[in-house]
Amino acid sequence: MKILGIDISKASISACLLSEKLPADTDARDAFYKTNFHKFQANAAGICGLLDLIGVGQTIAIMEPTGINYQKVWGTQLARAGLEVRLVGHAELRSFRQHHLGLPDKDDDADALALALYGWEYLHIPKRFLQIREGAIVKIRELALRLAHLNRVQSPIINRARQDLAWQFPEVALIRSVRFGEKVPLLWGWLAGERPSKKYDRLYAESIGLGITESVRQHAARLCNLQREEMTIEQELFELLAAPQFARYRKVFARFGFGQRIEALLLSQIYPLQNYLAADGKPEVKIAKGRRSGKPTKRYLSLRRFMKALGCAPSQESSGDLQKSKVAGGSALCRRALWQWIFTRIEPNNRRLSNETGRHLGEMLDSEKASGRPVKLARSRVAAKAVKLLFKELVREFGSFQI
Fold first, then answer.
1. Residue 161 is part of which domain span?
2. Are residues 114 and 173 in the same domain?
3. How does pLDDT run across 148-187, given as a tens digit for each residue?
4. What is the chain's Cα-based Rg?
């Protein structure tokens, strides 16, 4: 039995192979200087060298989820070679390396050693490791992240084009043009020469602007290409979401009025729901003595893990008389998507979700704002409440028991 700790960089890895747990009386810093570390490049020779190092016998590879690009190739190659691959969260590894091992200096070799020792320390505690997502969810997450990237790429191009249109064709500089169906947005399509428009022809003939330059037309062509790429990805994403195993999740999502992009992001984080529940399939609730009241207090552990995954669980930071909390960790994309959902489906009275969920969250937001609470804090509290309701509805959908 061996455990392989792998710290992944852009084009290489640092590997640490341990065949036993570190003895209790051994200082991790002494072990660091005595351990042999191995460097492998991200090429065929590097993969072969890593597999030769591992040799025969049972080996578990431990690594961090370093994005979907760097970790993907190493994790996939090792899995194909028959190794079990486990992932460790960044915060968990940092805490283990600094506080448990006493290795304050961060470098690739120190992280590789910490990963291997973490594997030995928590080998038989599955919840200490991140869940390995199945193939369909991995693909959904990859497509959702690609859509988020394309959205970020378009923003500076649109801003630059609008600034130029302000003096070239000011009558359309502030028009918000969006695509309809399978057609690119009319304004950008017209500027790129891909879509005819009598409306824009007439406005341009009467414009006070100084004339459209080739630079703006090229910006418009780039936006049209990016929009077509978005459409292709969305079609693939929507086909994946239509799979039967996601039907009950999407049934619950429909009660919240989530769009398909938000559905994809949420599914990529929370599927399957069983990962957040106890062994009996029910939400894990423990009763412990309250730190302030001293009375038995329920701690909703499953709900806490669920909220943490979606980036909506506050973390306490207390020292002496200073007590504060902040939202940290979890998926920043999910947190941002939930904020956007609040802006579009909860906050505007004329577009508010018309069912009980929408009315409840809308009244809560109105009340928070009316009480003088800062708007950003009010929206964060409503997002956290929405995630709690989502967890409750999902549990109700998958089992008739109370939270």
1. 136-241
2. no
3. 999 999 999 999 999 999 999 999 999 999 888 889 999 9
4. 26
